[in-house]
Amino acid sequence: MSVVTVEVGLGDRAYDILIGPGLIARGGELIQQRLPKARAAIVTDENVAAAHLEPLVASLSAAGNVPAVIKLPAGEKTKSFDSLQTVVDDIIAARLERGDAVIALGGGVIGDLTGFAAGIVRRGMNFVQMPTSLLAQVDSSVGGKTGINSPRGKNLIGVFHQPKLVLADTAALDTLPLREFRAGYAEVAKYGLIDRPDFFAWLETNWREVFSGGAARIEAIAQSCRAKADVVARDEFETGDRALLNLGHTFGHALEAATAYDGSRLVHGEGVAIGMALAHRFSARLNMASPDDAARVEAHLRDVGLPWRMADIPGALPDAEALFGYITQDKKVSRGALTFILTRGIGQSFIARDVPASEVISFLKENHAG
Amino acid sequence: MSVVTVEVGLGDRAYDILIGPGLIARGGELIQQRLPKARAAIVTDENVAAAHLEPLVASLSAAGNVPAVIKLPAGEKTKSFDSLQTVVDDIIAARLERGDAVIALGGGVIGDLTGFAAGIVRRGMNFVQMPTSLLAQVDSSVGGKTGINSPRGKNLIGVFHQPKLVLADTAALDTLPLREFRAGYAEVAKYGLIDRPDFFAWLETNWREVFSGGAARIEAIAQSCRAKADVVARDEFETGDRALLNLGHTFGHALEAATAYDGSRLVHGEGVAIGMALAHRFSARLNMASPDDAARVEAHLRDVGLPWRMADIPGALPDAEALFGYITQDKKVSRGALTFILTRGIGQSFIARDVPASEVISFLKENHAG
Question: Which residues does the record give as NAD(+) binding sites (chains A, B) (predicted)?
């Protein structure tokens, strides 16, 4: 199977995303092509290290670049100030310079944390992403957002720091639990729903092949990266259009918070899946989109095995007012109105700047599981 | 006395530096002009707060913007990961958004730390500098370098984050100890020595008026900011010319490290003063510049009361080899050669990329105090 290259066009910060099987084991050679003479440090977590560290270290060493290895515990708790300090100190202790390369080998947590560390050591070092989850390959590895969590909210602390190269090894996804692959797939479908109706239709037909691997999977990841790269190139620092990428995330984040970020009940991509279905249903309720489109989104999420309504979340949820409270924690409510990503139909999403709070609360009441 | 404005031309990151007396007490109005509706947090240290916090809080409050205040201990130890976390947490706790303003009220330590915090909360908030030391007004407040220290070296962790506005209140300098004012003056003289021979000549004539305050002081600060702004506009991210700003800093940093950053023996600006004199003397020894120019630099530093040779540092210094060790800690030595800022004469400095280590060591031996 051949490797697909997606170029992220950001002027002098432009970079390539390579997508295909076996890229981790070719890391040494591919990094050397772009960053000759750069020494390297790999940041990873214990789970990913067990599956993928050895071939990467071997490949870098074969290219004459024996890397420092910084290994952290797996899980969301690692996106903390403490871990950031550990990574920063270890990179400095390894005596890496600005022109050397910090490699993130892992999922979104490792990518976000490592990118942040690479962005602040010596005011910005070379950064290479090797995302090993579907979510990281199609979302967090494109666009340069890095960060950690604050006790007061997720991703509140970070920088924009673009990688020099992204290697998305599609074979690494074979080691993912099905539930995690599915959760990442929610973000793939999101790109169709934002502004690529043809891609969404293609997914409705081809999703089984995307799940089973092979060329369709590479194609879906490449389309997703292209879609995100287009938005990011238009609005690198999120002052406008980039907000479209939050489709499904307002409801989704509220549900994640309402379930106390308990991954046994709801993981991020599942929250986004339910959030996207709700955003379409809410748009229909506001007479902005056809209820048929909302039904089509719900059907596709159900087909692939993703949750699509609040009732799909195991355990009890807080009531509608409390859910609304989680939404407003996330954003400013000015004069009783909120900003939401809504839609006029499949692939026609837009930024709605004055959604009345009262409509949101009524909608949550109608769609509440309880 | 009128206020002078220096524009830092960085495209969509351009900003103004206002220089003149009484600007702190006008902070509320001046910030509101540029950032209408922005709420504010002030970061300062206990010493500066005693002298300057009240008028600033009053001015902001009068403009309808009651600020959050984050007060830290004074001193270099505050440039730490712990303080960074405190400032970041406090900004988030004050519920400030990206469009709100984080104000640094203080010297270089507060400016560097606060700029870093403003650069990473929500991936970059508005930042306003109100430098209260001469060093901060002419150096750290121009150019967007922010950062903290690592146990392994100074300023190793940080970001480039440009302020939206700098208010350099020249009356605030009247509260500085003379020794601190002098140390800041070393960086003023540096701009003449880098590439403005007329400015250096003007300083030789007018330095007494710069020290006593008034129009000459404002003029010297404005010239310094213009000089630094020119270099920064050419090379925002320090990939080339910006290195010229390190004139005097290679020797200076080594001497600071050799005296264990003990401010009772040597403060940063004094290290730079000795470093600039040594850079000129070393250039003369390498037959690149006239010894007369080195003598002229030494004479001016002596006139204003700054140390200009290693013998001026109280207490014993490590021997020449050990000093050379401190220099190489700071930079890469590739194949026995180092990069230095040298000069062909007053105002004719340049980046020398392959200075033989052996020449540096011989020079240090000849000029050693012991």
Answer: 108-112, 132-133, 145, 154
